[in-house]
Amino acid sequence: MAWPPPFDEGEPEQGAAAARQALDHAALVASRLKTLLPSARPYGTAAVEEVRTRAVDLTASRPTAVAA
User: Fold this and answer.
1) pLDDT value of residue 6
2) Residue 55 — φ and ψ, nearest 5°?
3) b vs e for 30-40, b when ≥16 Cβ sit within 10 Å of the residue's Cβ?
4) What segment(s) does the record annotate as region Disordered (predicted)?
């Protein structure tokens, strides 16, 4: 019995498009974090600390294009 193909027709292209979009969004997020975090440095609110913590966690996970 033959295994079915891993994707139906058109699905690889849809997956690649979704991955490309996710990578584009990730690049935008990284760019904004590089700008906003230094600007927020003087502030010690809970919201700012949460963003800093999440940014550190994201950096620690080191997402890459290969992982996507």
Assistant:
1) 66
2) -65, -40
3) eeebeeeeeee
4) 1-20
